[in-house]
Amino acid sequence: MKQTRLLDSDHSKELFAYFGLAVYYSQALEQQLVNLLVLMKISQGDIPSEEDVADMYYKKLSNSLGQLVNEIQHHFPFSPDETIQLKEVWKQRNYIVHDYFKERIQETFSPAGRSRMIRELTSFKVQAQDLERKLQKYTNEMYVKLGLDQESDKAGIHKDNI
User: CA separation (Å) from 48 to 43, 44, 82?
Assistant: First the structure.
């Protein structure tokens, strides 16, 4: 019973909240990779119709972060540092989502362990958030370059929804 109450403590809830933020920002990063991939395809003239764009968009949304990272490297000229960042965030995201609590469960039962985990999750969140913002900047630049900002303004479409 004591362990159950411990996991319901405010400090434990804070740990779980930071875990949620880490997962949230990794998903935001995945979304930006999808957006950038779709815009790259549009810029190459590979997608003839709006229906094809929508089909590709939804197909890409079902891809894993690893698939997206591998694909985007073939279509977008990332710097070597950005490529390293992408791969590192991908590796850390997989660890956090698939193994973090399995390997660190004992640490959740002590304040020091939870605090250490919160710091790690916060660090990952910042990395993923910074990378997502960078990709969002590239997406916005591509969006403007393709003239989609003018077309979407006329149609009432917002670029964050592509």
Answer: 11, 10, 31
Tens of pLDDT, residues 56-95: 899 999 999 999 999 998 888 999 999 999 999 999 999 9
The one-letter amino acid code at 116 reads R
Helices marked H in the chain — which ranges? 2-7, 10-43, 50-61, 65-75, 80-98, 100-104, 111-145, 148-155
pTM to 2 decimal places: 0.82
Nearest to 125 by CA among 4, 28, 13: 28
Could you give the C-alpha distances from 98 to 3, 105, 119, in angstroms and in order? 22, 13, 19
* Cβ neighbours of 10 (radius 10 Å): 7
